Each structure stands twice: as C-alpha cells, then as structure tokens.
Amino acid sequence: MQSRAEKLQQIFGQDAVFSAFNTQSHQTLMQHVKYLRFLPQQQILHYQQKMEDIYVLLSGRMQIGWLLSDGEFKVSDYVKMYSVFNLVPFLQQKPLNFDFYAVEQVEVAVISGQVFLEQLQQQPQAMWQIIQLLSERMYGLMEKNRYLQTASMTQKIARHLISLGQQARSAGQANSSMQFKMSQQEFAELLHVSRQTLNKQLQYFIQERIVEWNYSQIRILDLQRLKQISHF
C-alpha cells in the first residue's frame, strides 16, 4: 500500500497542476506539506474560508455543496479526482463559495501556498500549463451550464453516470469495468430531483441493461449507449 508521500509524488508526476514543475521544485514542495485525514461526513473546508494553502485530494471521495441554515447539505457535485481541489479560489485569493465534506475516509495533502507560488514564479512552463488548465476548466463550466439548462432528464442522468464512473475508475481499468458506490438518494440530490422521480427515470437504463444498480453499487454495463444518450 502506498504511503501518503508516495501518493503525492505520483500526483506530482501525473497531474497537470504539478507535472511541469522540475524535480527540484517537487522536492521543495514535499518539504512544505502536512497530511490530514477526515472521517465520513466530516467537514474538510467550509464556505467563506480563506484559502492560503493548496489542498490535494490523495484518497477517498468528497461531496461539494452548501450547508443550509436548517442543517441540510445541498449537494452540487462529487469529487474523486486526485488533484488540487481549491486551485481557483487560492489563486484569486478569494474565500470559498462551497462546503467540502468527506463521503468516506479522505486523505488530503496541504501544501504551503507561499512556497507553491514561489516555485510557480520560477517555472514559466508550469505557469503556462496552469493557465491552460484553468482555461479548459472555464470552458468546461460554460458547456456544463448550457447542458444543464437544455438537456432532458434522461440525458443528464447519462452524463452524470459517465462522469462519476470515470472518476471512480482506477488507472488502466477497462471502460467495461466502471463501477462506483452511490445511493439513489445521493444521485437524486446531485440532479436536484426527488428520489421517486429519479427511480422512474432509472428504470429505462436498468431495463435496457445499460447499468446495474444494486443497493448503493452502480455498475456501467454499456458505456457507449450512455454516451449516445448523453449527447444532444
């Protein structure tokens, strides 16, 4: 089993935020990191928290959303991509506009923001790569917003299943083996519909053998069909 330091080093080599840094910069960042562990349902970052450091997800799955005044958590998205998850608010020096909670046990590496910026300013290629990454994310958010405003519920379900399956898939795992854990209630909250409405919509996917949904275990059986359905 990999140690937390080994996981972080692997992310440094693969993730677009870090991969253009040179070896010396990677070593410097490793000298200014602390590791945190969170239990299921524990808050990781909170709304309006000021971002002074870089947070990197090492293991586990998070949910992003808003904690309402009545104590209900409104889910916006689930994250299981092992990368920096606060890059935009950190670079903008603005407080968070989301709450982050652990869905399962989560490990996070916290890297000194000051050291990260010092290294970034010395690495033009790394800076250019981050600019490209942020541009891609901005374009993706615009496309996602257009899709959510115009797509049918069936298309939205297909798109979310693809996204969640890709996040859960480990490196080198075949597309046909995409599976992940999520309850129908969690999925309904993600789509902002009732569980009853979601259950009716899911029957098509289940009857057509596109997905299997047993308790909280989802298995994608026909990724190609999902992609076809998700398109306009």
From TrEMBL:
GO molecular-function term, one example from the UniProt record = DNA-binding transcription factor activity
Which CDD domains did the record assign?
Answer: CAP_ED
Q: Which InterPro entries match?
A: cNMP-bd_dom, cNMP-bd_dom_sf, Cro/C1-type_HTH, Env_Response_Regulators, HTH_CRP, RmlC-like_jellyroll, WH-like_DNA-bd_sf, WH_DNA-bd_sf
Which key words are in the record?
Answer: DNA-binding, Transcription, Transcription regulation
- Which Pfam families is this protein grouped with? cNMP_binding, HTH_Crp_2
Q: Which ranges carry the HTH cro/C1-type domain? A: 181-200
Got a GO cellular component term for this one?
cytosol
Which residue numbers delimit the Cyclic nucleotide-binding domain?
Answer: 17-137
Question: What SUPFAM superfamilies does the entry give?
Answer: cAMP-binding domain-like, Winged helix' DNA-binding domain
**Residue span, HTH crp-type domain:** 151-224
The name on file for this protein is Transcriptional regulator, Crp/Fnr family
Q: Which organism is it from?
A: Acinetobacter kookii
